[in-house]
Amino acid sequence: MSLTNWSETIVIAELQDEPSLSEDLAALVARFEQDGDHRDVVLDLAEVNYLTSSNIAALLRLRRLVISNECRMKVTGCTNSVWGIFLTTGLDKVFDFVDDKLMALATLQMGG
Prior knowledge:
Layout: E1 2-5, E2 10-14, H1 20-34, E3 40-44, H2 53-68, E4 73-76, H3 80-89, E5 97-98, H4 101-109
Parallel strand pairs: 2-3, 3-4, 4-5
Antiparallel strand pairs: 1-2
Helix pairs in contact: 1-2
């Protein structure tokens, strides 16, 4: 995972496909649980080709932690197969999807 502190209020996480995806998500969850990180998050899933139920659970947990810290999370870069998983599970209505990282950053900076 590439983790970039884009600003004092925004972090970008570029996640990789399995086997590192599960570890990357666990590290992000731990960061928000233990450190009480108070930053908006941009999750870039461009390199992810498939999500397991464990990955989805970790994404939901991360979302809950980000929101409980009064921050926002944008998901970007979904491949067709990952987008299909979000649609099938109904999570397309739960997560906030943005077309690309630049749009996600602009939306977060503008307060959207």
